[in-house]
């Protein structure tokens, strides 16, 4: 397995705030997926097990998610592994 790129400084705290602001279950789960990586350092397989998702779905979330506080999707939010 490759080593995941680190998330930006303060990402876990900002994601925790975004969790509280989520307007739908889908939005909440996408943010939660990235938060689990940022706050707890979980890998995609562990996040998938925690959320009841497929590993491929977990790996797709960062590329689908554009969280403004963390930068754009190509430069700041890494693909989970």
Summing up helix and strand content along with how strands pair, one would put the structural category as mainly alpha
Report the uncertain regions: 72-79
**Helices and strands, in N-to-C order?**
HHHH
Helix content: 55-70%
Q: Specify the CATH class.
A: Mainly Alpha
| Reported CATH architecture | Orthogonal Bundle
Rg for CA atoms: 11 Å
The major beta sheet can be summarized as:
none
* CATH fold-level topology: Arc Repressor Mutant, subunit A
Number of helices: 4
Strand content: under 5%
Descriptive report:
The protein is an all-alpha fold and 81 residues long. It has a single domain, classed as Orthogonal Bundle (Arc Repressor Mutant, subunit A). It has four helices and no strands. It has helices spanning 11-21, 25-40, 44-51, 55-64. Helix 1 (11-21) runs antiparallel to helix 2, helix 2 packs across helix 3 (44-51) and helix 3 (44-51) packs across helix 4 (55-64). The longest helix has 16 residues, at 25-40. The radius of gyration is 11 Å and the shape is globular. Residues 72-79 have low confidence and may be disordered.
What brief labels describe this structure?
globular, 0% strand, 4 helices, Arc Repressor Mutant, subunit A, 81 residues, mainly alpha
Secondary-structure topology with pairs:
Blueprint (H helix, E strand, L loop, with lengths): L10 H11 L3 H16 L3 H8 L3 H10 L17
Task: Describe the structure concisely.
This protein is mostly helical.
